[in-house]
UniProtKB/TrEMBL annotation:
This is PH domain-containing protein. InterPro entries: YdbS-like_PH. The lineage of its organism: Bacteria, Bacillati, Bacillota, Bacilli, Bacillales. Residues 71-147 form the YdbS-like PH domain. The chain crosses the membrane at residues 12-38, 44-66. Keywords: Membrane, Transmembrane, Transmembrane helix. It comes from the Bacteria. It comes from Halobacillus salinarum.
Length: 158
């Protein structure tokens, strides 16, 4: 089975690792709170091992492993008649969006995406919204214009 030929920006890997680091930071704060409660109420000291293990697992999975797998799996391809998306960590989802179904295309940028010059494309159909995350800004703009033009042409053919 042939995969879509375009990949998202490699900077997405760094961005997703930062998101994983933020999630891990929240667990570190909870672990500190637990440590304070252990000392205040004289709870068993081994309880602190639970959040430490959780922090280690979060570092391995959300900062290192999951962003790498996610980046390797995310692919897309735009042709004259359809948009093909492939993504998923353990279950790979492949989606075909016919150009005649595309209603409009948006680009989105949050503060972190803007800092790393990335953007997310949202492709709206009548039923749902499909997103292509973390594209290079220029590629996102080129893709938005391209899909918009192709959708307009496809609509005129109907």
């Amino acid at each position: 089975m042939r995969e879509p030929n375009q990949r998202i920006s490699e900077r997405a890997l760094l961005l997703w690792r930062i998101y994983g680091g933020i999630q891990t930071g929240a667990v570190v704060i909870a672990a500190i709170a637990l440590q304070i409660m252990i000392q205040l109420w004289d709870w068993p000291a081994w309880l602190v091992l639970i959040p430490l293990g959780l922090i280690l697992l979060l570092l391995i999975f959300s900062v290192w492993l999951i962003p790498s797998i996610r980046w390797k799996r995310w692919r897309y391809e735009v042709s004259d008649v359809e948009i093909e998306l492939q993504h998923g960590l353990f279950i790979v989802t492949r989606t075909l969006v016919p150009m005649v179904r595309v209603q409009h295309v948006d680009t989105e940028q949050g503060p972190l995406l803007r800092k790393y010059r990335l953007a997310t494309i949202s492709i709206s159909t009548a039923a749902t919204v499909h997103k292509v995350p973390a594209l290079d800004e220029r590629e996102a703009e080129r893709l938005r214009q391209s899909i918009s033009s192709l959708a307009r042409v496809a609509e005129e053919d109907v």
